[in-house]
Amino acid sequence: MEQQKQTTTQLHQGRRVPRKKKGRRIVAVLAGLICLGAAAVAYGYFGPNFFLPYKSGYVHVRSDMTASEVGDILTDKGYIASPLWFRAVATVTGQAGDIHAGEYTLDSRMSLHALLDKLTSGKSEADRLVVPEGYTVREIAKAVAANGRISEADFLKAASSSDQLLPYMKGNRKVTFPTEGFLFPDTYFIPYDATADDVIAMMIKNFDDHLTDAMRAGIAKQNLSIYQFVTLASLIEKEAKYEKDRPLIASVFENRLKIHMKLQSDASISYAMGTHKAAYSINETQYDSPYNTYRYEGLPPGPIGNPGMDCMEAILEAPPTKYLYFVADKDGHNYFAATYEEHMKNVQEHMP
């Protein structure tokens, strides 16, 4: 029995791994983990990003932005997965303070190395163009020309063509610019080699992308064509300074159209005469232009500017009212009335 115990002990001792071999295995495992970690870090920096859906576009980097803020924007726009990783890499590589302002073309497959290389190059790849709500074709032309690549004349020539318009964007009356109303207000990044026609096409496509099926259905319920709808929205854009007034102004215009009452919009005179005034004289209200809604009944021949989404949605959300009149005070707040007597009272109390 004693001999059996000794034999068993000897067998167990024979199976023991020498301490040196154990240490080597641990070192090998640790080395392997370090190599895997290094490979993961290297791929995270040099490798393409396949973890996000593919997208490409422009990113605007301001001169006052930190690497952390840039990382947040890139994450929000879907170009990188982690703003923390971007900030860490930018800091470790010493590039956090070297990011330059500009407009850069990026896509979600770019490695962080390629992305940071572009952002620190300072080589802007596009002009940034801001088109506010209500801008006319002429105003957009000036904004485009201010970037110094496309002349005002070239833009106006492109805007005078209806070749790129979709069928619903075409009216049946003579207008100043057939593209007026359909150059969607937005921030655009214009490639340096873009032509005036390219810019027009970009804006028209943007309008069509924003006109949802739900909006189209709502417009049809109002017994308006899309062209009439945009024309009406362009009037509201010019008349309303504050959001709460837009649906009510839409209601006033709709009520007037139903009873064949002239719209009498100062904004229509402004467009017709090419002037911008707080008020127009009696003689000016008789200015002979089909755009002058003081002189001619109904909507003008076409839009008088390029309305934003808020004014288009205001038509769809206009409440049923009996309002036929409105007047604005010196701050742009509007006061509404159902009768001429009420309107004149508002004029005396609020008109500057």
From TrEMBL:
UniProt catalytic activity: a peptidoglycan chain = a peptidoglycan chain with N-acetyl-1,6-anhydromuramyl-[peptide] at the reducing end + a peptidoglycan chain with N-acetylglucosamine at the non-reducing end
Coiled-coil positions: none
Pfam families linked: YceG (PF02618)
GO MF, one annotated term: lytic endotransglycosylase activity
UniProt site (Important for catalytic activity): 239
Signal peptide: none
GO cellular component, one term: plasma membrane
CDD domains: MltG_like (cd08010)
BP GO terms, sorted: cell wall organization; peptidoglycan biosynthetic process
Record keywords: Cell membrane, Cell wall biogenesis/degradation, Lyase, Membrane, Transmembrane, Transmembrane helix
Locations listed in the record: Cell membrane
Membrane spanning stretches: 26-46
Keyword DNA repair: no
Membrane topology: Single-pass membrane protein
Protein purpose: Functions as a peptidoglycan terminase that cleaves nascent peptidoglycan strands endolytically to terminate their elongation.
PANTHER family: ENDOLYTIC MUREIN TRANSGLYCOSYLASE
Family classification: Belongs to the transglycosylase MltG family.
Name of this chain's protein: Endolytic murein transglycosylase
Organism from which the protein derives: Megasphaera elsdenii
Gene giving rise to this polypeptide: mltG
